[in-house]
Specification:
By secondary structure, this protein is mostly helical. It has 2 domains: 102 residues, no CATH class; 31 residues. The protein is 76% helix and 0% strand. The chain contains 6 helices and no strands. Helix 2 packs across helix 4 and helix 4 crosses helix 6. The N and C termini lie far apart (103 Å).
Amino acid sequence: MQCRERWVHHLSPVVNKAEWTAEEDGIIFEQVGASWLAALVRSPSGQARPPASTFMNVRAFLVLQLMCVGKSWVSIAGMLPGRTPQQVKNRYYAACRRIARAKVRSKRAAKAGAAAAAATATATTLASSSSVASHAKLLEAAAQD
C-alpha cells in the first residue's frame, strides 16, 4: 500500500511538480468567481495586488474549498489535475505563513513609524527650546550693552 501511495502522490509522471500555471489560475478563477477573488486580492496593508497573481488565485480557491469541504486535501486536489493532496496542503500553509508574516511586518512598520514620529517631535521640541535659550542669551547680552 505504501509503495502505491508513493507512486500515485510523488513518483508518477502525472504529478505536476512545476510552478502553478496560468491555465490552473483560469480554472480556479472560473470556479471561485470574480467577486470572491476581488475580496481576497487585497493585501493586509489594504493595497490591491494584480489579479493575475498566482498566489492570490490559488489562495482564493483554497479558501473557498476549505469553506466547502474543510481540510479534505484529497477532495481539493481532485479538482486540480496533476496536483497531489500534499502539494495543495503545502500551498495552503505557505499562504498562511505569508499572511502572518505580512501582518507582523505591518505592525512593526507601524511601531517604527510611531517611534520615528515621537523622536522627530522630541527633536523639534529640543531644537525649539535650545533656540529659545540662545535667543534669551542674545537678548540678555543686548540688554547689558
